Structure formats: structure tokens, C-alpha cells
Amino acid sequence: MGAPLLEAANLQLRFGAVRALDGVDVEIFPGEVVAIVGESGSGKSTLLRVLAGAMEPDAGRVLYRDAAGEAHDVQALSEAGRRRLMRSDWGFVHQNARDGLRMGISAGGNIGERLMAAGDRNYAHIRAEAADWMGRVEMNPERIDEPPKNFSGGMQQRLQIARCLVTNPRLVFMDEPTGGLDVSVQARLLDLIRGLVAQLGLAVFFVTHDIGAARLLAHRIVVMRHGRIVEEGLADRVLDDPRHAYTQLLVSSVLAA
Ligand SMILES: Nc1ncnc2c1ncn2[C@@H]1O[C@H](COP(=O)(O)OP(=O)(O)OP(=O)(O)O)[C@@H](O)[C@H]1O
Q1: Domain ABC transporter: where (predicted)?
Q2: For ligand 1, is residue 41 a contact (CB within 6 Å)?
Q3: Are 213 and 256 in contact (CB under 8 A)?
């Protein structure tokens, strides 16, 4: 399998009395989808933000290995260095599309802006790529000049995904990308994400409290509780044969729902 793309060791982070991360070790390999599951408040989003260098842990470290095999200490990166990684190697899909989109510019502009930030200056090419990506996320490319507010919540989320993937990242962080959407919209979006992830061979950290989504997308599942990883393993093993009592509860409460 080679070296991990990203690995974190002994992450600690407290908010006052709350231990949001309490000795977390986690890693991801190229092309792997890792779901981070757990109930609300278990530390999933905090972990994702720390892994992406958007939040500093009190202790521990995160290493990212670039395409040339060089390891970078994510917390030691300058803000410019982190932004560079975010533009080239990484992508972040927020739960709320508004956090990942620029609402004042067109759909095509939202996708094209990422290409421009990555150095593309050929406007005809940028527009063609933006239209192509709208098609790939099942949006009508004829609506390329419309602003995000004209689109439904599910479509805005597709647009955010197109904006994120257009630069061909190696590692994508997704924080509840289907949260807050209707169940039928969620199912289609998950299918779309699954197809794109497989097609592009992406590595994805996928935060969710939806066990069904984890089963559909993930190769491996990490179960968090009170800032700790209480269980991890291949998705089928964790879901079909959960060993920790908390995982059993999580899985059974879904089955009973
Ligand atoms: N900026 C902050 N200031 C204070 N406490 C915080 C902050 N961010 C997170 N916390 C606390 O840290 C704990 C973990 O929060 P986190 O958002 O990571 O959980 P989560 O598993 O992602 O929950 P959810 O599924 O509800 O998003 C919670 O107790 C939360 O209240």
C-alpha cells in the first residue's frame, strides 16, 4: 500500500473542560475513503479541521506526503503554504455549501476561480472546464452564468463539489456533505460522490453521523467518542461485527430506526 498520504499522531485539543481530541492517531492512504463517525459532539469536525491544518492542536502532529514523496508537517506550514496545498493537493467540502462557495459570483465563476488560483489563465479553457464539471455533477451547463442562490441546496452542494474537484486534488476533506438535505437528495448526492471518488481515485476523509453513508462510501471506518477513537477497521467489519459497545449502539440504533 506504500506510505500514508496523511498521518496524525497523538492529537490533543481541549476547549475549556471539553477534550475535543484526546490522543487521536489516524492515517489515510492514497485512494482510500475513511469515514469518521460518531454522535454529535464526539469530535469529528474538530478532527477534520486539525487534519486539514485549519485548527491547531494542543499537542500531536499531522504529516502530509506530497506527490514527490516529501513529508510536510501540516501545523508547521505557513498560512501561504497551507493555502497553496488547499489550492493544489487538497479540497474541503463543507456541510453548508455557502461556506465553500462564493455567493456573489456565477456557478461557472465558482468553478473557474479554483482553476485560476491554480494558475490557469486560458479563459476559454476555464469556461469549458467549468461547463464540463457542471455536467459531471449533473447540473445543467446552460446555467453556468447563474449565481449559486438560484440553485437548490442539493445543487449548491454539487457546485461546491465541482469547485473542489476541478483542480484534481489528491486528498479531500468532507464534513457532512449531505447533512441538512432531503433524504432523496442525500441518496443521489452520495451516489454522485461515490462515482467521482472512484473515478478520480481520491483519498477522502468523510465526516458523517449517517452510518448508511459510511457504509456506501468508506473503505475504512473510524468511530469517535468523547474525542477518542474507540474502534476502527474495514467498513464491512466495523458495521457487520462491531466490537466496541458504543459502535454496537451506533449501528443498532440505525438498524432500529
Ligand atoms: N470552537 C469551539 N469552542 C468551544 N468548544 C468547541 C469548539 N468547537 C468544538 N467544541 C466542542 O468540542 C466537542 C467536539 O465538537 P465537534 O464539533 O468536533 O463534534 P462533532 O462530532 O463534529 O459534532 P457534530 O456532529 O454535532 O458536528 C464538542 O463538545 C464541542 O462543543
Answers
A1: 6-251
A2: yes
A3: no
| Cell numbers representing residue 24 in the block | 487521536
CA 72 to ligand 1 centroid distance, Å: 27
Collapsing DSSP states into helix, strand and coil, what is residue 69? coil
Which atom of ligand 1 is nearest to 47's Cα?
A: 18
Take atom 17 of ligand 1 and give the residue whose Cα is closest.
Answer: 45
CA 179–ligand 1 middle distance (angstroms): 16
**Domain segments of the chain as ranges:** 13-89+169-257, 101-168
Instruction: Give the tens place of pLDDT for each residue, 66-75.
Output: 999 999 999 9
CB 217 within 8 A of CB 193: yes
Distance CA 110, CA 143 (A): 13
Whole-prediction pTM: 0.95
CA gap 125, 131 in Å, rounded: 10
**Per the CATH hierarchy, to which homologous superfamily does domain 13-89+169-257 belong?**
P-loop containing nucleotide triphosphate hydrolases (3.40.50.300)
Band (pLDDT 50/70/90 cuts) for residue 209 is confident
CB of 160 within 8 A of CB of 94? yes
Beta-ladder partners of 125 = none
pLDDT per position as a tens digit, 24-72: 999 999 999 999 999 899 999 999 999 999 999 999 999 999 999 999 9
Q: Is 46 in the pocket of ligand 1 (CB under 6 A)?
A: yes
Task: Report whether residue 37 contacts ligand 1, using a CB cutoff of 6 Å.
Answer: no
Phi/psi for 77 (5° steps) reads: -70, 145
Q: Both ends of the chain: CA-CA distance in Å?
A: 37
